[in-house]
Amino acid sequence: MWDKLQRLFGGNGQGAKMPEDPVLFNIAYAKEQYKVPLDLSPASIKKIDDVLGTGGELPDDPRHAMIGTLGQIHGEIYVHTHGWGWVGEHEVRSEEGRGSASLEPITSAATRLHGGMEECLQLQYYSTITNPGAPLPDWMAFQAELFIEYAKDRYGVLVDYRPISIDALDGMAKRIKKEPSGMRDFLIAGMGALIGEIAIRDKGLKWVGHEWGPAIDKNGALNFVTGWAVKRVLDGEADMLRTKYDFLIVSDEPLG
Questions:
Q1: β-pairing, 221-223 with 215-218?
Q2: pLDDT of the residue at 254
Q3: DSSP 8-state class, residue 155
Q4: What confidence score (pLDDT) does residue 97 get?
Q5: What is the pLDDT of residues 170-197, one digit of tens each?
Q6: Average of per-residue pLDDT across 62-81
Q7: Do 182 and 156 meet the contact criterion of CB atoms below 8 Å apart?
Q8: 3-class secondary structure, 216
Q9: CA angle, 44 as apex, 41 and 48 as ends, to 5°?
């Protein structure tokens, strides 16, 4: 491994000088060990998410190395892109004038690895940087966008905001049910968000908050579309999304 890393920096394995910058070392290590090219742009957060998703079954030492390496890179993205600073070895913090938001990137990486996609670093980045305190409609739109990316990358399924995509979501349900619990819950939440976003674009509806969860409001009738997704994935074809969506279009009665 050491010789391979040396060759990445033009060495021959005999006295070649490794980079003094630990960030460059971690990026080189990730490329060699996890076969993933990373940089310090926010686009790398998805790649880090994906690699951490593979680490749950590793032995202790490789798992800890993965968490430490990718956690450090994760923190450096905030530092490099948004001007945050390290506070000690484990925390990055924004400037005081920006509300002094903070993050423990290595802890976040460990939580992502052990907790699954419910602890997705991309969602954390969105809530911290892209739109902190996001209104419900913005938050649901982001989850729908993320689901579209994962449907393409993970299943090769192309979905968008047209009503025809409801049929593709029905077709994905069995595959989502087979996922590990963290990934399954993440995808179910994204599926519900996308159903809602389709309804908004198709029929001019809107998101509203409720103690039971986000809902699509049609003339005062609340439709808990995330609940539709849960039932479709867990209960099977008895709860087809197409049937419910068509009911949403023609009726003001709440479903789910």
A1: antiparallel
A2: 52
A3: I
A4: 45
A5: 999 999 999 887 788 889 999 999 999 9
A6: 95
A7: no
A8: strand
A9: 145
Q: CA-to-CA distance for 156 and 135, rounded, in angstroms?
A: 31
CA separation (Å) from 239 to 119, 193, 229, 231?
Answer: 28, 17, 9, 6
**What is the average pLDDT value for the chain, to the nearest integer?**
87
pLDDT at 99: 57
Structural contact between residues 187 and 176, judged by C-beta atoms closer than 8 angstroms? yes
Environment class of residue 97 by beta-carbon count within 10 Å: exposed (0-12), middle (13-18) or buried (19+)? exposed
Question: Within a 10 A sphere around the Cβ of 217, how many other Cβ atoms?
Answer: 15
Neighbouring CB atoms inside 10 A of 169's CB total 26
- 221 touches 254 (CB < 8 A): yes
pLDDT at 159 over 80: yes
Measured CA to CA in angstroms, residue 110 lies from 31, 63, 166 at distances of 19, 9, 35
Q: Grade residue 2 by pLDDT with cuts at 50, 70 and 90.
A: very low
Rounded CA-CA distance 129/102 in Å is 11
- The secondary element (H helix, E strand) that includes residue 218 is strand 215-218
Buried b (16+ CB within 10 A) or exposed e, 3-31: eebbebeeeeeeeeeeeeeeeebbbbbbe
Query: pTM (2 decimals)?
Result: 0.75
**What confidence tier does 18 reach under pLDDT thresholds 50, 70, 90?**
very low
Do 109 and 70 form a contact (C-beta atoms < 8 A)? yes
From the list 65, 96, 134, 211, the residue with the least C-alpha distance to 124 is 134
